[in-house]
Amino acid sequence: MDLDTVRTFVAAADAGQFQGAAAELALTQQAVSKRIAALERSLGVRLFTRTARGAELTIDGQAFLPHARELLRVAERAAASVRTGRRPLRVDVIASRGAPSGLMRGFHRAHPEIELDVMMLFGIDTAVAAVRSGAIDASFRAVGMPGRPLPEDIESVRVLDEPLQLLTGPAHALASARSVTLAELAGHRIWMPGLVPGTEWAAYYDGLAAEFGLTIEATGPNFGSDALLDTVADTPALATFMGEQTRLVWPAGHGLRRIPVTGPTPVYPHSLLWHRDHPHPALATLRAHLGAAASGHDAAGTWTPGWVTAR
C-alpha cells in the first residue's frame, strides 16, 4: 500500500476537505483527489462522500482511519530506528491525568529544549515490548508482578511512591473524615471499573484487598473518569481509590471528597523502565531529573505489595 496515498487520506480526514489536505501536504487539490481515488480503487470501497462543507468519511472510511494512522506510525518507527539520536524522546505515561504525566510535565518545564513524544500504552507487557523494540524509549510502570520478571535487557528505577486517597460522594458514611485507616475501609464498597486482570495495577489492588480485607469491585464497563466521578457522587454506598497526584476536575455540585488513607498509607510504586543497550541520548537527563525529584521509598507507615521491586 502506497504510504503517500495513506498519508493523503489521513490529512483529508483530519481536515474534513481535500483543499485543506492539499494545503497541508503542499499539493494541488487535483493531486489529492487522484491519490484518494487511487486508494479507493485499491481498497474497492468509497472512503469519502462529498458534501457542501467538504468531504465526510463513509463508514468504510471511518473503519479504515485508525489502521491508516497505525500504518503511518509503523513507517515512522521504521525510519526512527536508524536515527534514534535525532527523534523526540518517547515516554509512555499510561494515562493523561496520572502521576507519570505530571512527572513528564515537570521534566518539560525544566528542560524545554528536549523534544518529547508522550505515549499512553496499556499494560506492562505492551510497554516492555515497545521499549525492547525501540518504539518508545521509556515507560512508567509498577514492576515485579509475580511470574512477570522484567527481561534482562530492561533496566528500571523506582522514581515515585504515590499515596492513595479515598474519593467519596457527599453522602458517603466516611465523607466527613479528615483521614481514614485501611481497617475502617473494611466492609465499604470500593468501585474501580478500570481494573483489568493481568495488568500491574490490578495486581496491586488485588494485593491491597487481600491483605486488608477490602471489598474492591471492578464490575461494569469502564466509561472513563467522568462517569466514575458521576457515579461516586450520586451513590452513597460507593467510593473509589485514586492517586494523590491524579489531576481530576468535577462539577462543584458533585461535592466529592478526597480523603487521605493511613494505617498504613498504601502507596503506588512508579518505576521508570528503559532498554540498557540503546538508550535515547536525552534519557540520562530524564533519569537525573527524576532522581533529583524522587523521595524515599518504602518509608515507615507505608504499604506496597511484597512483589514490588525495590529499585
Automatic annotation (TrEMBL):
The keyword Flavoprotein does not apply. Gene3D superfamilies: 3.40.190.290, Winged helix-like DNA-binding domain superfamily/Winged helix DNA-binding domain. Residues 1-58 form the HTH lysR-type domain. It comes from the Bacteria. Keywords: DNA-binding, Transcription, Transcription regulation. The keyword Disulfide bond does not apply. It holds the Pfam family LysR_substrate. Belongs to the LysR transcriptional regulatory family. This is LysR family transcriptional regulator. It comes from Streptomyces viridiviolaceus. The lineage of its organism: Bacteria, Bacillati, Actinomycetota, Actinomycetes, Kitasatosporales.
